[in-house]
């Protein structure tokens, strides 16, 4: 599986990184997540926020998220995927917590996700 890394950013001691991969099934999604979570920087992160969308071989659409304790963040990624009609992709944004950022953390999460997804689609 080809995992792509997005742009990393740091703000107030928080570090955000992203990874994305092309998928066409739940099996692909599980495989990608396992592979991504084995990356040392990802494994050491405070939060690993995930969203995916794909269309299966029977033309059924599937999507899902995992907040991993970062309330509202995964939906932000999924909303971006929907609005940009991006399909057949899974993205994981990793956050190493520093200081509280408030709502601006969503901008960092969204930008990190977009930078990785652009390398996949």
TrEMBL record:
User: In terms of domain of life, where is this protein from?
Assistant: Eukaryota
Please report the stretch or stretches of sequence annotated as the Impact N-terminal domain.
15-117
Q: Which family does it belong to?
A: Belongs to the IMPACT family.
The molecule here is called Impact N-terminal domain-containing protein
Organism of provenance = Tegillarca granosa
Write the lineage as a comma-separated list: Eukaryota, Metazoa, Spiralia, Lophotrochozoa, Mollusca
């Amino acid at each position: 599986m080809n995992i792509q890394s997005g742009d990393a950013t740091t703000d107030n001691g928080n570090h955000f990184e992203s990874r994305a991969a092309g998928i066409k099934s739940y099996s692909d999604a599980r495989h990608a997540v396992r592979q991504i979570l084995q990356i040392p920087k990802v494994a050491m992160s405070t939060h690993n926020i995930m969203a995916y969308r794909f269309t299966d071989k029977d033309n059924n659409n599937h999507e899902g998220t995992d907040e991993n304790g970062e309330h509202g963040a995964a939906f932000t990624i999924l909303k971006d995927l929907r609005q940009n009609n991006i399909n057949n992709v899974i993205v994981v944004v990793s956050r190493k917590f520093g200081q509280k950022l408030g709502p601006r953390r969503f901008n960092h999460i969204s930008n990190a996700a977009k930078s990785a997804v652009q390398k996949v689609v």
